[in-house]
Structures are given as C-alpha cells and as structure tokens.
Amino acid sequence: MIWWEKITWRTALLAWLITTMTVVTFALAIIPEQKRIFQANLGSKAYSVAVSLRNITAAAVVNEDYSSVVDQCMEMLKADRSIKYIILTRNDGFSLIHERSGWRSLALTDVWLPSDRKPRSNMAVMPLFQQPTYNFSEPFNYSGISWGWIHVGLSLETYDQSVRSVYFRTGLLALFFTMLSLGAMILYAKYLVRPIINLQDTVGKIAAGDLSARAPTGRTDELGQLASSVNTMTEALLRRDSTLKEANETLEQRVQERTRALQDQIAARELAHRELAEAQRRLMQLSREAGMAEVATGVLHNVGNVLNSVNISANLVQNSLAGSPRLALLKQVGGLMRAQGEKLPQFLASDPRGQLVPALLMEIAEQLPTDQSAVVAELGQLVQNVDHIKQIVATQQSYAKSGGVIQNVAPAALFEETLRMTQASLARHQVQVTRHFDEVPVLHTDRHQVLQILINFVTNAIQAVKPLEPGEGHISLRLSAADGQVKFTVEDNGIGISSENRQKIFRHGFTTRKDGHGFGLHSGALAARALGGQLMVDSKGPGLGASFTLILPAAAPIDNPQIQKETP
C-alpha cells in the first residue's frame, strides 16, 4: 500500500490542510489591515504638518510676506527626512514649492487646484516629482475666504519597509505554524488511528480462522463499542462452529431419515399424479360437454334475436293479406258481377251500381301494386332474416371445422342492416335512432359474426329504454376509426349499469333482466376476440344510460386460426 493511501497519513494531511488554510486566511486578513494602519499613520503625520503651517500661512496672507512661510517649510524639511515636499498654492495658481534641495515658485494647475475643496490623500507619482509619494492636500481658508491649498508629500520608504516587514514576519510565522501543525497532526493521527489499526489486525486474524483473537476493549468511545461488537461476532462464530460440529455428527442419521421421508413423498406424489390424470380426463369430458351446451345456448340466443324480426315480418304479411280492405272490396265486386249472370252487360251499362264497377276496378288495380310491394318487401326481409339464422347455425358449425368466411364489409352497411332487422321492434317501442358515422376503412372480417354482435347491442339497448315513456327512448349509433381500429358504438339513455355489474357484464350466464339468459354479450365477447377485437362497456351509473362498443382491427388478423380467408 502506498504511504498516502494509509488512513494515518490521510487523516494527518486533511487536518494539516485545514490548519494551513486557517493560517493563510488569517495572513490574508491581517496584512491589508496592517497596510491600512500604516497609511493612516502617514495621513495623520501629513495632516499635522498641514495644520502647523496653517497659522503661519494666515499671517503671510495678511502681510503678503511669504518669507516666514518659506523658512518654516525649509525647517520642517530639514527636521524630518520623511517629508519630501511642501507646496502652498493660491487659487490663481501661484505656488511655493519647497523641497530639501531648496524652494521655488511656479504657476500650478490641474491636480494642485482640486475643484472639490475637501481634504484628500493618495499614493501616486505626482507631477514635478518622478517618484511615488504619499500626497496630502488640505484646503486653506482665511476669514471665510478660500485662499488656496496646502500640499504635503511624504516619502514611502518607511511605508514600504514596514509593509515588507509585515509580509516577512507574517510569512515566517505562517510557515512556522504550518510546519508545527503538520508535525502535531501526524502525531495526533497516529494516536487516533492506532486503535483502528489494532482492530484491523484483530479482524484479519479472525478472517484467517483464528477465533481466539480478541480486540482490546479499554476504550469507551465508538472504537471501543466497535471492538465489543467484533468480540461479540467472534463469540457468535465460535458458537456457530460448535453447532455445525454437532450437526455434522448427526447429519448421516438425518439424511437417512430424510431419504425415507422423500421416498414416502415420491410414492404419495405418484399416487396423486394418477388420481390427477383421472380427474383431468373426467374434467375434459365435462368441459367438452359444457362447451357443446354453451355453443348450443349461444346459437339459440342469436337465433332468438333474429326470430323476433321473423315473427314481426310474418305477422305484418299475414295482416296485410288477411285484413286488406281492397281484397275484400274486390271480392264483393266479383260476387255482384257473378250474381248478374247473362244480364251483366246490361247491368254495367244501365244500372247505376254497374256503372261504378269499372272505376272501382281501376282504383283497386292502381292500389294493388303498392300493397304487393309492401308484402314483397316484408317477405324479402323475412327471407333475409331466415338466411341470417342459417348463417348463424352454419357459422357455429364451421367453428368445429375451419372457421368463418372473411369478406370485405362496409361498417356503415352493417349498422344499416342491423337497423333493418330490428326496425319493427324499434317502431313498436317508439325508440328514436340517430346516426353519427365518420369515414372509416372497409373491414376484412366475418360479416355475420359482426352483424350478430351489433344486433345484440341494439336489442339490449331497446330493452334498456323500455321502462321510459313512449317516445322518450333514444339510441345513438356511432362509427369512428383511430389507430388502425374501427369502433362500432351503440349508446342509449336507458336504465344504465352499476359499477359492480360493469365488471361482470361479459361473464357467461350473467344478466340483469328477469327473462334474460346471460348468453348474448358473453358469446359476443368470444366472437369479437376470435375476430381480433374486443367489446367494451361504459355507463355513468343507474338511470344514466349505457354504451357498448365493438372494436375491430382495420386489417384482418392473419394468424388467427378461427378465421378462414375467402378466396377471391
């Protein structure tokens, strides 16, 4: 292990770095303060010189005799070598410049005549003197009149020496305390980490298999608690080894006992397998019989839905033929003409009743085609319903073979055909129907299976609105497409469905109608799944209506084994 990877050195270095940062921060904070104090001393000294000259300068202004001012300034320069120059400047620029080498008068402007008459000081290279100095400027007023300025320049040699001395002493002390702290941190880290190293040695011995090793527990801090935990773990390992030895001594006996128990379990399992196989065989037989019964029930339910329309169409044809007033009138006219015998021409020509016969026959002849068309239409609907019944039976039979026939189907046409098959029931219960058809793609699916589901939807909707007053029942047919799917939705404003019943609506045998069997929606869900789609139900609650939706893929599920594609 490299030395700087050891915990002792890392602990010592971390503490030393913290100490070093503290010392450096202190030095960086104390040096600017010392410089500020030095600068304050320079300002105080320059201010004292300017104040001492103020009274002498006042007398010179009164007498206009500057000799005393010059003498006083030269004496100050000789007495204190830290003063570099003294300049007295009037407002008109006339200035007396005093240096150690002598004095002279000049006309000065710019920095020597500041516009703001406030005392000021700065360190800079002033004009006339090509070396850095501390310049202090004091405005001079006499009898309330601004007379001029007193400028005092101090040498920076003492200031620079003091600053260098501060840097040197501070750096020396920082280095001394940094090295001292490094040594102290190393000693302290060794003292602090020594128990951890001893504990590491103990754990290493225990890991090597020496369970007699114990960690010293003389400390009361966290390391002492850790050492106690290690000793407790070691004792637990000793107890575990003792338990393992005892277990090994009795292992062979327990293995034999366990082997006998496993043999008994295997024999019991073989017996259970044979009983399970027999039960599965009986269950398959019962399931086959139940499946046949469910298929038959589904066929009967779907056929029953269509038979309602067949019965209504047959009744309409029967009523049209049996109760037609035109046929009864035609029969009466025929009997009247037959009663005239040979007098029929005279009867038609001269008798008032006979004269009405030709017009009556013509009127009957004009109305008979209309009655015939209505009867033919109902017979056509009757034939179509009978054909649908045949297709239902054929479809259920085909499931036992290869599946239904796939063909191109227009979704809107399926809804319209559903309405035609349920038209009589809708009219009898005065149910209003609205259509909301979007543009959707042509389906490639089993037409009769889809028609069977839609008829079931509409029939259930009619039953749901029957409790309403005549004319208040309403059914909406919606057709839409999204995400490659076509949706057939039948929505009613009937009795609605509770949330509990919505979960069970597609179960086999579940129904909320007293005369229902619970086969229609269940068989419809199975048919939709076989076509690659699904059924969905939605209702806001009892009395708030319900909607049923058939969702089919726009493309036929090619891999569905229950659908046989029609060969074009």
Largest sheet: 6 strands, antiparallel
Widest β-sheet, arrangement of strands = 3-2-1-6-5-4
Kindly report how far apart the N and C termini lie: 83 Å
Describe the global form: elongated
CATH topology value of the largest domain = Beta-Lactamase
Number of helices: 13
What is the CATH-assigned architecture of the largest domain? 2-Layer Sandwich
Q: How many strands?
A: 14
Helix content: 55-70%
> What series of H and E elements makes up the topology?
HHEEEEEEHHHHHHEHHEEHEEHHEEE
pLDDT < 50 runs, ≥5 residues? 398-403, 557-568
Task: Indicate the topology.
Layout: H1 7-63, H2 67-79, E1 83-90, E2 94-99, E3 102-107, E4 120-125, E5 132-142, E6 145-155, H3 157-207, H4 222-249, H5 251-322, H6 325-340, H7 344-350, H8 352-399, E7 404-409, H9 411-421, H10 423-428, E8 432-437, E9 443-445, H11 447-465, E10 474-482, E11 485-492, H12 499-502, H13 520-530, E12 534-538, E13 546-553, E14 563-565
Parallel strand pairs: 7-14, 8-10
Antiparallel strand pairs: 1-2, 1-6, 2-3, 4-5, 5-6, 7-9, 10-11, 11-13, 12-13
Helix pairs in contact: 1-2, 1-3, 3-4, 5-8, 6-8, 7-8, 9-11, 11-13
What would your notes on this structure say?
- The protein is α+β, with helices and mostly antiparallel strands.
- It folds into 3 domains: 5-173, PAS domain (Beta-Lactamase); 302-385; 402-565, Heat Shock Protein 90 (2-Layer Sandwich).
- It contains 13 helices and 14 strands.
- The chain has helices spanning 7-63, 67-79, 157-207, 222-249, 251-322, 325-340, 344-350, 352-399, 411-421, 423-428, 447-465, 499-502, 520-530, and strands spanning 83-90, 94-99, 102-107, 120-125, 132-142, 145-155, 404-409, 432-437, 443-445, 474-482, 485-492, 534-538, 546-553, 563-565.
- The strands form 3 sheets. A 6-stranded antiparallel beta sheet has the order 3-2-1-6-5-4.
- Helix 1 packs antiparallel against helix 2 (67-79), helix 3 (157-207) runs parallel beside helix 4 (222-249) and helix 11 (447-465) packs antiparallel against helix 13 (520-530).
- The longest helix is centred in the middle third of the chain and has 72 residues, at 251-322.
- The protein is elongated.
- Residues 398-403 and 557-568 have low confidence and may be disordered.
